[in-house]
Amino acid sequence: MKRKMPLSESVFLILVRISKGPIHGYGIISDVRSVTEGRVELSTGTLYGAISRMIDDGWIEKYQTKTESGRERKEYRITKKGIRILNSEMERIKSLIQIADFSWIKRQA
User: Fold this and answer.
1) What is the pLDDT of residues 3-53, one digit of tens each?
2) CB 1: neighbour CB atoms within 10 A?
3) Which domains can be identified in the chain, with CATH numbers?
4) Three-state SS across the chain?
5) Are residues 30 and 11 in contact, defined by beta-carbon separation less than 8 angstroms?
6) Omega into 22 within 30° of 0, i.e. cis?
7) Nearest CA-CA partner of 9 in 51, 53, 40, 44
């Protein structure tokens, strides 16, 4: 099933974080909380639901890594399709910002 644009804020933030390099689920939750200064607090249900859909859509992929103690851990990385989706969403957001003529908004204040 194809996901529609625009991306939800949670999906956008998760995809942005995964685009910066492979990461495990708790790391995504922690990094999103940090970058949004606590404004966005991803629940595990939201995170893993979004991850499952993005894997199904081919935007990210899951792979196993080993920790220093030898335990296996799931990590996620972005695919070429995911990069295209993320770039498309960033362009959409940029165009919205350009449409909102900030000088006009300031004159109204």
Assistant:
1) 567 999 999 999 999 999 999 999 999 999 999 999 999 999 999 999 999
2) 6
3) 9-108 (1.10.10.10)
4) CCCCCCCCHHHHHHHHHHHCCCECHHHHHHHHHHHCCCCCCCCHHHHHHHHHHHHHCCCEEEEEEECCCCCEEEEEEECHHHHHHHHHHHHHHHHHHHHCCHHHHHHHC
5) no
6) no
7) 40
